């Protein structure tokens, strides 16, 4: 394919980047001898780097964000129009796109009622934590302030978000952490902590949460935050029986259930939100990445009316309302882009496509599992899929992280960008991650898994 862009002086751009840009999640020492990767343009599922090389992007912008694909002029147009009309006003006031998107969003979330705008997933989760903490002070004298989180889950990059993160390598060197966050066990059946399977394992993993609550004291626990599918910790959907039991436990002990949909939200799992696969009703839901597919910065912390009402029941108390602000939660481009993003998903039937193409990914990975003994487990939900690599199937010994990353590198050589867990969970950074845009076609899926097939053959030979 002819490269669809022109760069007048690629070398000057590369050198400016090398000299001045501090990249995310990257060790920069190699850039002394190797050029940083610079992505210049995207269309659909394809992106082109500054050298003109074309890649198919199987991770939606590298961090599971560009749900409707690149080059959506209609989103860019509404963002431009909104910026000219009103680019920003502080969130203490409303805006037309803010009101319209909140209404459209709540329509997709039965049982939820209120939308608090912010600009990143980490910030949205901080809002949820602050709500739980303030409720503890307002209703329980500050005692019911602890927030539970799950091993392997990830909730953001701020110090308090890391305090609720179950990935030790992401947390390393950033302590001391915010007190009052308490870990509960993971629910990955492939790495089972109990000699059980299926629904029995799911219920037992949930019961482990109750054990932590009782150990800590139920009168001290105000909330629990969970990903509907554990993302960076290994693409882990919970077994049957897990979510229903979790909700029962939360209701039993008056604990707010907070679901982190930053990765799974807005179509990624084949439903509007990941929790909707499991028939549960959260109290707080956070979201970010796919809300506007990266066309504008936006995140949301969504609550039930019952949670919202806890902050307006005594208007005479000057400290009673939610005393929080997100400066760029007042940027009007975010909800404008989010409205158009949602319209595209509906008009193009992308939820249905996500389920169909997700099933194709899983089928293709299972076929590769028959061919490559290094694949120990295949799992996922919708277009969010993983393949856990092992050195030995019988013992389930994880494949060394360097070899896992070598598979990613071999795919890159073929022009296919895939992901893998890395520098997150000690000893278990061994899962390949696939999350292409919801517009993926059968040919796209086959090209991605064919590249993995060839990469596994190369790396394991």
Automatic annotation (TrEMBL):
Its cofactor is pyridoxal 5'-phosphate. Keywords: Aminotransferase, Pyridoxal phosphate, Pyruvate, Transferase. Belongs to the class-III pyridoxal-phosphate-dependent aminotransferase family. InterPro entries: Aminotrans_3 (IPR005814), Aminotrans_3_PPA_site (IPR049704), PyrdxlP-dep_Trfase (IPR015424), PyrdxlP-dep_Trfase_major (IPR015421), PyrdxlP-dep_Trfase_small (IPR015422). It comes from the Bacteria. PANTHER family: AMINOTRANSFERASE, AMINOTRANSFERASE CLASS-III. This is Taurine-pyruvate aminotransferase. One of its GO terms (molecular function) is transaminase activity.
């Amino acid at each position: 394919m002819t490269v669809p862009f022109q760069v007048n002086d690629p070398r000057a751009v590369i050198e400016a980047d090398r000299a001045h840009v501090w990249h995310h999640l990257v060790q920069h020492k190699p850039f002394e001898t190797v050029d940083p990767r610079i992505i210049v343009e995207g269309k659909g599922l394809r992106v082109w780097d500054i050298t003109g090389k074309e890649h198919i992007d199987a991770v939606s912008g590298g961090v599971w964000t560009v749900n409707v694909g690149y080059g959506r002029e209609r989103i860019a147009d509404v963002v431009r129009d909104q910026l000219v009309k009103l680019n920003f006003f502080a969130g203490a006031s409303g805006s037309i796109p803010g009101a319209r998107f909140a209404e459209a969003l709540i329509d997709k979330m039965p049982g939820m009622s209120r939308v608090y705008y912010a600009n990143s997933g980490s910030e949205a989760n901080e809002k949820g934590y602050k709500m739980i903490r303030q409720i503890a002070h307002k209703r329980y004298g500050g005692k019911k302030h602890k927030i539970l989180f799950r091993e392997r889950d990830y909730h953001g990059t701020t110090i308090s978000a890391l305090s609720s993160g179950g990935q030790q390598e992401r947390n390393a060197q950033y302590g001391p952490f915010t007190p009052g966050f308490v870990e509960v066990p993971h629910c990955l059946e492939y790495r089972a902590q109990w000699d059980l399977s299926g629904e029995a394992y799911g219920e037992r993993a949930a019961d482990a949460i109750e054990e932590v609550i009782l150990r800590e004291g139920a009168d001290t626990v105000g909330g629990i935050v969970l990903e509907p599918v554990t993302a960076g910790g290994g693409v882990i959907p919970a077994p049957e029986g897990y979510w229903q039991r979790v909700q029962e436990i939360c209701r039993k002990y008056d604990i707010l259930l907070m679901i982190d949909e930053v990765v799974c939200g807005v179509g990624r799992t084949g439903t509007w939100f990941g929790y909707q696969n499991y028939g549960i009703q959260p109290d707080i839901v956070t979201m970010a990445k796919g809300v506007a597919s990266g066309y504008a910065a936006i995140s949301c912390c969504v609550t039930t009316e019952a949670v919202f009402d806890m902050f307006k029941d005594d208007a005479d108390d000057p400290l009673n309302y939610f005393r929080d602000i997100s400066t760029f939660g007042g940027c009007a481009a975010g909800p404008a882009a989010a409205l158009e993003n949602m319209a595209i998903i509906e008009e193009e039937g992308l939820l249905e496509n996500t389920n169909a193409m997700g099933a194709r990914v899983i089928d293709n990975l299972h076929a590769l599992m028959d061919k490559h003994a290094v694949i120990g487990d295949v799992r996922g939900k919708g277009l969010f899929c993983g393949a856990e690599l092992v050195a030995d199937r019988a013992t389930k010994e994880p494949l060394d992280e360097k070899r896992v990353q070598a598979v990613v590198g071999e795919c890159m050589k073929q022009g296919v960008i895939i992901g893998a867990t890395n520098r997150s969970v000690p000893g278990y950074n061994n899962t390949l991650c696939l999350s292409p845009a919801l517009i993926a076609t059968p040919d796209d899926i086959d090209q991605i898994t064919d590249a993995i097939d060839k990469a596994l053959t190369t790396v394991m030979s």
